[in-house]
């Protein structure tokens, strides 16, 4: 067993605080990773505060993990000690269902094993990346290039793949008109990916203050969703809308912006169901599709793509001691665009 | 001008009653069709009673038209006098937008010209198939085989293409698990098409009385939507659900029946928007897509397919004099599965 320092929540209502625990020794297929950076995802807050129900404590959050291999099991083939490695939102799955066999482990029919707030197959609670060490089967571990700053790579493991995967799935290509709704951790990656795929990208936002940032990220256009004339001019305009908003909102306003055969991708989960008028869908053969992170194979493809095309997240690096304050700032939308914990701060 | 006998509504609140008017002489690209049968679509009732707004009167409804060519314009190439012919939901469109050029005239960017309750490009009100004659550009006229009983072919022009087109669009194939929600004019055609494409077809209905009929139509399974255990057993089960219901209902119950990458096709328009929980979509990369009838090319493909595979609608043939009673029975769901008017009754 390896002593591990971490920050954990002891209940839904207590702040994150220092927590020591032990990680298993690597099994024959496992790698042990010394964590260097861990991104802070909004779903960390939801789970820490038990906003989705079913949370278990103590909980060490974090599923945007980048680090360096420090031990490998006897049968490990992909990694050697000293390699860079990443871990995303899950660390295991059934491996035998159709989805697992197709590389869609995120849709595993018996449920993936989450990187934290979940249980390994032997029942051990999983603990995430706000910690100094993690031990993961090599099949669920990603290779990380040294071409990009590691702190900017960490958010690719969740925010990156969550937006890359559906844009690829719906086939976004050169010349397509793509709108990104909501400019946060997910939205800013969506803009970067859509631009890099050759799309004509419009940022849709309710906040005029996001305009300059959207342009800096590469968006070709900015449209204020509160401006009725602008929205009217964008009716039947987009091939794809990537909707990252998790606040309550009415889908119908945005569906009408899609042209014939257009698709709205939903990656945010508003607290209550959204209204969908059938006629908006029928009138132009429009569709709505949901998408959840991505499988291991596609996550590796995305990481390799980012290394090749120099794509990474905009981050604000913080020491772990500022995590509770960071959560409060995230809730106010005050982060551009991802907090990333420098795990060196845990070792002090 | 050609004298035409018809049944028309004079207002949203008066019953349909005899109405005489004139059709134009065929232009160089037009055909004149002596109407033999016209199907009765639920949208006829919605428009007659102005339930969708914007109805104009007098209104001769009917867009499931089958008849015989009696005159052709000088430049007509596809038809000669004596040929069988069909007319569906539209009789013209802009012909120059991307959708029209791709054979998706139903999504014409400036709006298709409806077979009735619409206006020709010269402003003339269009009048539908509850009439003895119709004059239509040959490009918007379908060829009808003599292999099938004509009264059973008429409903293919709307109910048929409305279900054929999306099943083809989403790629239903041999072995796919397809559910049809709602067994009416649309649903009964959906079952027939899905079965003929080789799918394993389940009829989902709230009415146990539909079971025997569903089986007669070829459905392999029947599931009662009010039976909680049955519905639980069908979670993550279907590749495609074709939702034909236009009564108010909650999509989420049915979305959960879709397996990973499954699609719910929506062809019914409930009076108010339906609830869609994002998580249901995201958890399994499920999608919802709308679909509106079909273009001319695909409608012809469908008609040819039906002639080849002996597919036609289940109908109850009525004289036009019973149309108002038929509407009342349709509202109660008391028709198996399409009323078709024998237009000979108009000539008496």
Mean pLDDT, all residues of chain A: 96
Low-confidence stretches of chain A: none
Rounded Rg of chain A: 20 Å
CATH fold node name of the largest domain in chain A: Quinone Oxidoreductase, Chain A, domain 1
Strand content of chain A: 25-35%
Task: Provide the CATH top-level class of the largest domain in chain A.
Answer: Alpha Beta
Report helical residue fraction of chain A: 10-25%
Number of strands of chain A: 18
State the separation between the terminal residues of chain A, measured CA to CA: 21 Å
What oligomeric state do the depicted chains represent? homodimer
CATH architecture assignment name of the largest domain in chain A = Alpha-Beta Complex
Total count of helical runs of at least 4 residues of chain A: 11
**H/E element sequence of chain A:** EEEHEEEHEEEHHEHEHEHEHEEHEHEHE
Look at the helices and sheets of chain A and give the structural class: alpha/beta
Morphology of chain A = globular
Q: What is the total domain count of chain A?
A: 2
CATH superfamily of the largest domain in chain A: Medium-chain alcohol dehydrogenases, catalytic domain
The major sheet of chain A is characterized as: 7 strands, mixed
Q: Largest inter-chain interface?
A: A-B, 37 and 37 residues
């Amino acid at each position: 067993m390896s002593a591990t320092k971490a920050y954990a929540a002891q209940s839904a209502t207590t702040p994150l605080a220092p927590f020591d625990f032990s990680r298993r020794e690597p099994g024959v297929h496992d790698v042990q990773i010394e964590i260097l950076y861990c991104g802070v995802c909004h779903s960390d807050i939801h789970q820490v505060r038990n906003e989705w129900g079913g949370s278990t404590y103590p909980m060490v959050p974090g599923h945007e993990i980048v680090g360096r291999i420090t031990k490998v099991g006897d049968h490990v083939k992909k990694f050697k000690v000293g390699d860079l490695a990443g871990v995303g939102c899950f660390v295991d799955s059934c491996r035998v269902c159709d989805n697992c066999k197709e590389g869609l482990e995120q849709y595993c029919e018996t449920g993936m094993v989450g990187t934290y707030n979940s249980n390994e197959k032997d029942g051990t609670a999983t603990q995430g990346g706000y910690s100094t060490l993690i031990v993961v089967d090599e099949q669920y571990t990603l290779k990380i290039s040294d071409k990009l700053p590691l702190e900017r790579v960490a958010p690719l493991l969740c925010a990156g793949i969550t937006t890359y995967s559906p844009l690829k799935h719906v086939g976004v290509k050169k010349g397509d008109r793509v709108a990104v709704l909501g400019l946060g951790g997910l939205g800013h990656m969506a803009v970067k990916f859509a631009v890099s795929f050759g799309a004509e990208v419009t940022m849709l936002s309710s906040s005029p203050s996001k305009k300059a940032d959207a342009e800096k990220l590469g968006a070709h256009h900015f449209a204020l969703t509160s401006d009725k004339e602008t929205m009217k001019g964008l009716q039947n305009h987009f091939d794809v809308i990537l909707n990252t908003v998790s606040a309550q909102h009415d889908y119908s306003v945005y569906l009408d912006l899609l042209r014939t055969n257009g698709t709205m991708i939903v990656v945010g989960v508003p607290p209550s169901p959204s209204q969908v008028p059938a006629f908006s869908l029928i009138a132009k053969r429009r569709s709505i599709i949901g998408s959840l992170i991505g499988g291991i194979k596609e996550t590796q493809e995305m990481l390799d793509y980012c290394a090749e095309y120099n794509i990474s997240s905009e981050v604000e690096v913080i020491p772990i001691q500022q995590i509770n304050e960071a959560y409060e700032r995230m809730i106010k939308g005050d982060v551009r665009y991802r907090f990333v914990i420098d795990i060196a701060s845990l070792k002090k």
